[in-house]
Write a structure and sequence with these properties.
The chain is of the alpha+beta class. The strands form 9 sheets. The chain has a 16-stranded antiparallel barrel with strand order 31-32-33-34-35-36-37-38-39-40-41-45-46-47-48-49. It has a 6-stranded mixed sheet with strand order 4-5-3-2-1-30, covered by helices on one side. A hairpin with a 5-residue loop joins strand 12 and strand 13.
């Protein structure tokens, strides 16, 4: 994966221990009603939406060459056909490999400011990286017992998946990425920038934190440092690439070995010991680069304007040069966009007086050294909306409005970035585009429109956005392997300057304002150049250049095409923001994030340029190589997706509570995108437990979704409270069989989710009575995120009507909850109220107790309100009220108090308190897994007739 490691091993472990969430859910392609297609090659099956046809088919034609190249380098390739899903759920650059094997590729290309932006083509580098995972991690164990145990897991898990630490998994795939393509992170400028900066600041990760940490870029170290460590090991052994193959063979051998044992058998020592040597070499080489910069005249980096941390956003300067807008981020809080003065802040008179009083009262006290500027006071702040921050600010010509970008949710829970205008003086935000995938924009001098980048379907085009109507017009369409980045309109409004990825590097181009007459500008010297901004005069640009092997700022004269260095920095400088009076604000990398610095143009020439020696890797860049040519081969005929390839997985069922117990099996089938899923369920157990079987089909090929179900069950569902004996009235004491059909529509937006269901059922109860009903349900969930606080509200409505035997009935139920979570602590208050017109003591009377059905749709038995600590029928009546409070303290379970009452209940409110583990895993069809829900709890009764009793329950069920 390109941003985080989520192997199938983690999924299997989560399924076993039933954790309440899975990070894999973020990778889900979603349920798309669009037209999907499929195309085959010898070793791959590609599945993709129709609009991604060109991107996918272009890659599919080179995928067999990827197969051969990775097989040659890794020494193994999967024996089974590899499924490749191409989809764009979040409009970001990413990829993932899951066991099966299955690759999931996101087509949006990365920018040059991204660690993955240095490549000879996004489709091939993401495919090489993820297929390297497949070749490396799916190699089967040669130990018979290990292979047998792996075969018992619903989702395949290999021994190497369990043995290899994250740094080895991601570092090896990154190593292969560079070896096959000759580009990527192993041959880029970003990897040495990070390693060099962290080494010089004494912050290189230890071996214990190499897998990941909570520090800035801690999760990226497995890729960057892990791949550099593997390269160093190979170079230490005279460049023998066979050694990494040998390591994998030892980890998958018949003779089971630990990682340390396998490592020592190949490299002569444990990875901990060898990493210590690598740590020293990386630091020595970083010091050598520093010495080279010192010999050239030292660091030229201007002055520190703000000491910041984490991933600071690109700054923007107002037209008058008096204001600066920048996105500030942190590890624990949503980002915020602030406007501040470009004049350094100073102490107020009140602060000076307070400080003077301190030292006057204690003359021996010592004043603090002030070596860093004071934090700038925010003139205005634009907070994130439900955790989604605003970024990419660009001042409008009037200085009052700022163009900003924020990602928003569109259909099927997918998200796209859109353009907004923030009037920072009044605080109002106006939306400009809707689902347009605009990543950034530069306003025209008259403020009527803006020129931006739109990334859709694997392309990043230059577009014009009308700021009054939001209309988007393509000015220059990009090629899949040639995306654009960071367009800027000239001060006279007659031309556009942008970066474009050309032949493996980013170059500057200039176009007329209508997108025509594209021509390269600047030298063709092998350097990448991006982030270009016009100076106030409009006759030159300030930009980021990688000339010499370090990200530095340059001045480019547009008439002559000549460049002059502006900075000579040891880490990385980018995102220049020039002021009208000849200064430039920019970002400078350090091990805690990005500082905001300023430098005057021509203040201190940063010549000569320092060219870092490749021999100083990993603190210096390794030159790009030609890599393995990936020749195009013919692919199979493009076909419709149909029902897709099918996965069938058996999974256990469990339901145990005070009412009884039952266990069973689910046989579940799905396709990789979840278009059609079916389950067959069978349960058997005690007389008072859920027993029977069901078959269910869920179709999501169009909206609304359609669900069909057939079922039968046996066993009484109601008991006499305190005795466990079947109730004389209202009991379903024989059998119930029938079927149901329902339709469902979901609508998700940022901060809200809606679900509407309607359906009906017919069946036969107790072999004597016909039962038919119709139902409708609506649910809404709301979310607000403010700083470290998270607020949720949920409301659900259920209405059903039907006929059972000789009587008709109507039933309604309203449920709701409100929750707050802050700093790991959470409180949830919830309640239900329900009523019915069914006869007293009838089968349709409202009851409380037991668990929710695992066999059929709970809407069919909505008269039953689950409470697993109570017998079914502990509360009965024509109206029921329930209240519950949960306290969460950052643990996988909650402490709860429950109370309920029913009309006609002479004992008053029934009270229960206990501890419950209530976990859910979202459905992941590409991993063959349904939605999983698990409950495990224990509670004490505080009301008669069972006061003082302790009750326990356990439940494991699935959604298709």
């Amino acid at each position: 994966m390109f941003h985080s490691s989520r192997t199938i091993l983690n999924t299997a472990l989560l399924l076993v221990v039933l954790l309440p969430y899975s990070s894999l859910a973020a990778q889900a392609p979603g349920y798309s009603t669009r037209s999907w297609q499929r195309v085959d090659t010898e070793h791959f099956l590609f599945l993709y939406p129709e609009e991604l046809s060109e991107w996918t088919q272009s890659l599919a034609g080179r995928m067999e060459a990827v197969f051969d190249a990775v097989d040659s380098l890794v020494g193994y390739a999967p024996e089974d056909r590899v499924t490749v899903i191409v989809d764009d759920p979040s409009n970001v650059s990413n990829g993932a490999m899951y066991s099966g094997p299955l690759l999931f590729l996101w087509p949006t290309p990365p920018s040059p400011s991204s660690f993955t932006g240095e490549n000879r083509g996004w489709p091939e580098i993401v495919a090489v990286h993820e297929f390297a995972h497949a070749a490396h991690l799916t190699r089967p164990s040669r130990n018979p017992l290990g292979r047998f145990l792996a075969s018992l897991v619903p989702v395949p898990v290999t021994n190497i998946m369990r043995q290899a630490p994250r740094w080895l998994r991601e570092g090896y795939a990154t190593y292969v990425e560079g070896g096959v393509t000759g580009s990527g992170r192993p041959h880029g400028i970003w990897r040495p920038a990070v390693i060099r900066t962290w080494a010089l600041e004494g912050q290189l990760p230890t071996y214990a934190t190499l897998n990941g940490s909570g520090s800035y870029l801690g999760g990226s170290m497995a890729y960057l440092v892990g791949s550099a460590f593997l390269e160093w090991l190979i170079e230490r052994e005279s460049g023998d690439q066979q050694l990494l193959i040998n390591l994998t063979r030892r980890l998958t051998a018949r003779q089971q070995r630990s990682l340390n044992n396998a490592f020592a058998g190949v490299f002569g020592a444990s990875p901990t010991e060898l990493y210590g040597e690598f740590f020293v070499v990386a630091t020595e080489n970083a010091l050598a680069v520093k010495n080279a910069v010192d010999e050239a005249g030292g660091v030229v980096e201007g002055s520190l304007f703000q000491r910041l941390s984490w991933s600071t956003g690109d700054p923007a300067v107002s037209p008058d040069g008096e204001r600066l807008a920048v996105a500030l981020r942190s590890r624990t809080r949503p980002s915020r966009l602030v406007v501040m003065s470009t004049a350094p802040d100073t102490l107020t008179d009140e602060q000076r007086q307070r400080r003077a009083a301190i030292y006057e009262a204690d003359p021996e006290d010592v004043e603090p050294v002030s070596r860093r500027p004071l934090p700038q006071r925010a003139l205005a702040t634009l907070h994130a909306k439900n955790g989604r921050g605003y970024s990419k600010p660009a001042f409008l010509p009037d200085g009052d409005g700022i163009l900003v970008v924020r990602s928003d949710v569109i259909e099927n829970s997918r998200s796209r970035p859109d353009l907004f205008v923030w009037h920072w003086k009044t605080g109002t935000v106006k939306r400009i585009t809707h689902g347009a995938a605009i990543r950034e924009a530069s306003p025209a001098p008259d403020g009527s429109c803006a020129v931006g980048i739109r990334c859709l379907n694997g392309r990043c085009d230059i577009v014009r956005v009308d700021l009054s109507s939001g209309a988007v017009t393509t000015l220059t369409g990009a090629d899949i392997r040639r995306p654009y980045y960071h367009p800027r309109v000239s001060p006279d409004g007659r031309s556009i300057v942008s970066s474009v990825q050309h032949e493996g590097r980013w170059r500057l181009v200039r176009l007329d304002i209508d997108g025509s007459n594209e021509r390269f500008i600047g030298p063709s010297d092998g350097a990448t150049r991006f982030d270009a901004e016009f100076t106030g005069s409009g006759d030159s640009l300030v930009l980021t250049s990688t000339l010499g092997g370090i990200h530095n700022l340059e001045i480019l004269d547009l008439e002559s095409g000549q460049t002059n260095p502006l900075t000579r920095i040891l880490s990385a400088a980018l995102a220049p923001a020039p002021t009208p009076d000849g200064e430039v604000f920019f970002l400078a990398l350090h091990s805690r994030g990005w500082d905001l610095r300023r430098i005057a143009v021509g203040e201190n020439p940063a010549t000569p340029i320092v060219f870092t020696a490749p021999s100083l890797s990993p603190a210096a860049a390794r030159p790009a190589q030609s890599g393995t040519p990936l020749e195009t081969t013919a692919v199979g005929r493009v076909r419709g997706y149909g029902l897709g390839p099918r996965y069938v997985v058996p999974l256990p069922l469990l339901d145990a509570s005070v009412e009884g117990w039952s266990a069973g099996l689910t046989l579940r089938s799905t396709d990789p995108i979840g278009k059609l899923a079916w389950q067959i369920r069978a349960m058997h157990g005690s007389q008072s437990g859920w027993r029977g079987g069901a078959a269910e089909v869920l179709w999501r090929g169009f909206a609304p979704w359609v669900r069909l179900q057939g079922f039968f069950s046996e066993g009484p569902l109601a008991t006499v409270p305190g005795t466990g004996a079947p109730a004389s009235a209202g009991a379903w004491d024989d059998d119930y069989f029938g079927g149901s059909v329902s339709i469902e529509h979901r609508h998700t937006r940022i901060g809200s989710a809606h679900r509407i269901r309607a359906g009906g059922s017919v069946g036969r109860l107790n072999s004597t009575q016909n039962r038919s009903l119709g139902f409708a349900e609506y649910a809404i969930g709301l979310l607000q995120i403010r700083g470290n606080s998270r607020f949720t509200e949920n409301v659900g409505l259920h209405l059903s009507a039907g006929r059972t035997g000789s009587f008709d009935w109507v039933r309604w139920r309203v449920s709701g909850s409100a929750g707050m979570r802050m700093n790991g602590l959470g409180v949830i208050l919830s309640g239900q109220i329900a009523g019915t017109g069914a006869p007293r003591d009838s089968e349709e009377e409202l009851t409380v107790g037991g668990t929710e059905s695992v066999l059929f749709d709970p809407a069919i038995t909505a008269f039953r309100m689950a409470m697993p600590a109570l017998e079914v029928g502990a509360l009965r009546g024509d109206q029921i009220q329930i209240l519950r409070a949960d306290l969460e303290a950052g643990l996988p379970f909650s402490t709860f108090f429950w109370t309920g009452d029913a009309t006609g209940n002479l004992l008053g409110w029934y009270r229960v308190g206990g501890i419950e583990f209530n976990a859910s895993l979202p459905e992941m069809p590409y991993l063959r897994l349904p939605g999983v829900r698990a409950q495990l709890g224990v509670a004490r009764m505080f009301s008669d007739p069972n006061k003082g009793d302790w009750r326990a329950w356990a439940r494991l069920s699935y959604r298709p």
